Amino acid sequence: MWRGLYTAATGMITESYRTDTIANNLANANTTGFKRDDAVSSEFEPMLIRKIDDLSKTQRDVTTFKGFSLNNNAPIVGELGMGSKIDEIATDYSQGSFQTTGNPLDLAISGDGYFMINTPQGQRFTRDGNFYRSARGRLVNVSGYEVLDNRGRPIDIPEEAATVIIGPTGNMTADGNPVAQVGLFEFQGGNKAMTKVGDNLYRPIDPNNRRMAATGEIQQGVLERSNTNIVSEMVNLIANYRAYEANSKAVTTQDTMIEKSVNEVGRNM
Fold first, then answer.
1. For residue 45, how many other CB atoms are within 10 A of its CB?
2. Residue 152 gets which letter from DSSP?
3. What residue ranges do the domains of the chain occupy?
4. How confident is the model at residue 113 (pLDDT cuts 50, 70, 90)?
């Protein structure tokens, strides 16, 4: 009974983490460049169960007939699950749909690659190309962090510039004059080499993994939308709630059985 209680409880914990992941996906359904997460679960090592009461000193068990016995072990009943756990939070890096804005500083990446951002914690990377010109004339993201060029330097946009053009490789011109090349990078191992750090930013898992030029292209006047599908996430949330409820009922049932064992069986002994 205790084993059943703990097994159901681990199921509740697993589904609780999964609910948090789905809720985060829904909350960022309108976040530019956001990549949804999946909570990947696995089970604890199952236990092999044998029917020990079928083996006696006289070898009279279900595998014995007229002196013949398969072995001296009790027959196997099967495996007993020991519960589940969250193995990892996996990110879905599939391309989000493009939304045309017409803003010359809105950039989207078609294919693989990340923009490089200068943050107080160091250089970070993002797929969110919703950029602005700051009061100091620098290209910044929505948090006010500087967008860096292909050499890791801030990008200054002339105040008097009337027309800003950014090409597929990141080459930026203002009124026809070269300004900078917007940095577009990726790492060896692709998207699997990256991990989320919050604020729609990423960093390489291995700090020694050096950045290199990305194979993707920049689209100007366009933003990449989140790859979260709201309908699918709501369906997953409903299924997750039912799984949590089933485990909750199992915990209640096990608790009732333990209570009867203590109060009734113990009293009659």
1. 7
2. S
3. 98-224
4. very high
Mutual angle of helices 2-27 and 230-260, in 10-degree steps: 160
Give the DSSP per-residue string, 17-82: HHHHHHHHHHHTTTSTT---EEEEEEEPPPEEEE-GGG--TT--STTEETTEES-SSPPEEEEE--
How far is 109 from 223, CA to CA, in rounded Å?
8
Is residue 263 scored above 80 in pLDDT? no
Written as six digits, the tokens of 240 are 């997750």
Say how many C-beta atoms besides its own lie within 10 A of residue 36's C-beta: 23
Tell me if 143 sits within 8 A of 199, measured CB to CB.
yes
Phi/psi at 78 (nearest 5 deg)? 150, -165
For the record, the structure tokens of 108 come out as 């989207």
Which token pair is 257? 């059985």
pTM listed for this prediction: 0.79
Please tell me the predicted confidence (pLDDT) of residue 66.
47
Q: What is the mean pLDDT of residues 166-174?
A: 96
- First-to-last alpha carbon distance for the chain, in angstroms, is 19
Beta bridge partners of 52: none
